[in-house]
Amino acid sequence: MAHHSGTLKLGAFLSGHGSHNASWRLPEVDEDASRSFAPYARVAQKLEEGLFDAIFLNDSVAVPELDPKSLARSAQGMRWDPLTLLPALAVVTRRIGLISTANTTYNEPYTLARRLASLDHLSEGRAGWNLVTSLGGGENFNRDDHLLHAKRYERAEEFFDVITGLWDSWEDDAFVQDKANGIWSNPDKMHLLNHKGAHFSVQGPLNSARPVQGYPVIAQAGSSNDGRELAARTAELIFTAAQTIEEAEAFDADVTARLARYGRKRADVRILPGVSVYVGDSAPDARARYEALQDLLDPISTLKGISHFVNIGIDLWTLDLDEPIVLPSVIPVTNTHKSRQQLVIDLIRREQPTVRQLLRKMVAGGHRILFGSAQDIADDFEHWFRAGAADGFNIMFPDLHGSVDRFVEQVIPELQRRGLFRTDYEGPTLRDNLGLARPRNRFSAARIDHSPAIRR
Amino acid sequence: MAHHSGTLKLGAFLSGHGSHNASWRLPEVDEDASRSFAPYARVAQKLEEGLFDAIFLNDSVAVPELDPKSLARSAQGMRWDPLTLLPALAVVTRRIGLISTANTTYNEPYTLARRLASLDHLSEGRAGWNLVTSLGGGENFNRDDHLLHAKRYERAEEFFDVITGLWDSWEDDAFVQDKANGIWSNPDKMHLLNHKGAHFSVQGPLNSARPVQGYPVIAQAGSSNDGRELAARTAELIFTAAQTIEEAEAFDADVTARLARYGRKRADVRILPGVSVYVGDSAPDARARYEALQDLLDPISTLKGISHFVNIGIDLWTLDLDEPIVLPSVIPVTNTHKSRQQLVIDLIRREQPTVRQLLRKMVAGGHRILFGSAQDIADDFEHWFRAGAADGFNIMFPDLHGSVDRFVEQVIPELQRRGLFRTDYEGPTLRDNLGLARPRNRFSAARIDHSPAIRR
């Protein structure tokens, strides 16, 4: 892609007490963040003060690790339903985007279409949907075996067609709402979907007006071949786990090539690598904050969590922490998190870490970890951004308190000083701020859409 | 039941622009109430000012009437997802209960358990669930034919067992959250559900702490035999459509008898008949408000809506408005709204209305319609309440604006003056205000629960 001269986009990845597994143990962090609204309201407002494009909530439909040691030591079993938390956050914020993860494997498109449309109306155009196929959890949804990877993607493709078709049920000007004459709607602007496919039969129409943004912004993080293909067809915001500029550039080139197959351009997509950021008053201060969190980590339950998340055929928690990791000759084929498995294998081959070193690398879910002063962070971001390796970043905050405050108070002003980041929101909707076009309604595509949200 | 000497409970049934089909045409009513948050926020705060026990949102998973005349004239096609609107309302209120309708036919128990648990945590114990089996909409959920009535109830029974079992996944004190020692939870207090039934296989545990209230308050409105039986086993709040004190007493006696089969007492349940209320400065003023709304009604689309809702084998909209209604010798068997069909048949037999008279009776979904001054309304409520025919009322506000204001400003003070209504909320949770016990966790039932919410 062309080297960037504009400004970068920033997402805030939020989960539990923070992206670091031990963050709940920090004195300043509210241990009830997954059942008490106040900590999330505070963080959302702080991120909006920092002009972040969006809050991005991840999700899961199961408690991942059930052995007693993990239950005792790892902060799990308590999680917000993201599409319940985000409507509440919409009320205490005005401009920041609200992106929810939701899976296509255990949901029904009609139900999810309603939830996301209502969130987009409630927030006046700030909703986003992170489409995932796999979150585990089949055991909670009448399935002994998790749907096969390929089948999940097939279902996801069809789910996307149905949900966007439902959002197009009503044209933008279908609701006449003429009180004097009692005319509520123009029936010619209502369109039945009448979808009949392998996975879904959905007649429509949706019982909701079209979302403010046409569709909520579509995000995705799948990096497998199927995942990239789905992203190329449907995603507008792509989260990656690129560790190096070279990896990021290769990913970018690959996605750009795939986009063309669907008549889309690179400019229709924003690519945001995830990065876990530790900001300190100086580089040593940042490192000390990072080390302090690492020291709070329980190795056994964390290693079990990693092994659950990415199966590389080794029971990591049975090894000595200072033992080097030797990959088995045959690595098991995985049905979940395919691309994340590859990332870990690559990392082990490249860096030959001990168990302890891998553990520390993996606390941000395998994302890049960055620590330093605000200048150091801004240098890194500027380097990636100017090189064209990223349109911005999805920041994985280690904790939900101080790490957010330090980023907003120290890194954001430094990015603004360099002209790398906005000094005010561009507009009221998430699409406005990301510079993404408002999608046409498929049923009125022949007409010219004069919607003010369209930029290109 | 014993005659009442306490105070009555009040629910506020909210839907669209109000329960009257023409309410959107009133000048003061915001025509965007189903996609703009402000009108609902305003009404919720007004109802809390009036110390209402709860807001109660209904739901539907389809646009009910698709013929062009109905689409053009009847305010449909736009509806909040109630479990998206209620989290937002939780933020702008402090004490009022938040009850959402959600169906057991097209939802998965794990998903709904999460949504309701998150709402209960978010609102600090104010969530309620109105369990319904039937809202139509099979055509949007891979089903050409709506599930048979009996099958729906069978699924609902199992759904209830699963969802409450999931809410019991974690005992109330399972989360130790000891930061210093890194102990997150006591694994002995996590319980797998391992449910395998005809409709659901769900392992658990839920990825949420137990709701603040143990379970959200369970509400139901089914009045058929199956509906009453399910309510007797599971409901804590029962909405009825009783038209007369005699009907209400018969319903009460029937439910009381059924409760005994499940080891429950009448005091475990609150029965609230629905009533549509028009408050005026005087009786003629109230009647004038009622007539003004009736005059805004479009007869054809409203009659189609009624026929869709309750099929009595007559195409009402083809008849002259002043023609008396003659029931056919054979009335079709219905698969939805069985009890509502019977209510209409009874009404026609009792009152022998013209089409126009039935139309006017049915604008509140067949509920009792009451108009008068604040004194008149309070007289009626007092009469029913003292007679033991109701524990309170579910008020169907004709519109979402003036009718709420007049009730809160005029009727509530009159009820308080008579000692019939609270002058402050009894406690922070919906259970506290309804005087309902906090349910025990089935897995820790052997231990004594000292929860402060328990009253009896």
Automatic annotation (TrEMBL), chains A, B:
Residues 33-294 form the Luciferase-like domain. The keyword Oxidoreductase applies. Pfam families: Bac_luciferase. Keywords: Flavoprotein, FMN, Monooxygenase, Oxidoreductase. FMN binds at D59, T101, H149, Y153, S223, S224. GO terms for molecular function: monooxygenase activity; oxidoreductase activity, acting on paired donors, with incorporation or reduction of molecular oxygen. The keyword Repressor does not apply. It comes from the Bacteria. Belongs to the NtaA/SnaA/DszA monooxygenase family. This is LLM class flavin-dependent oxidoreductase.
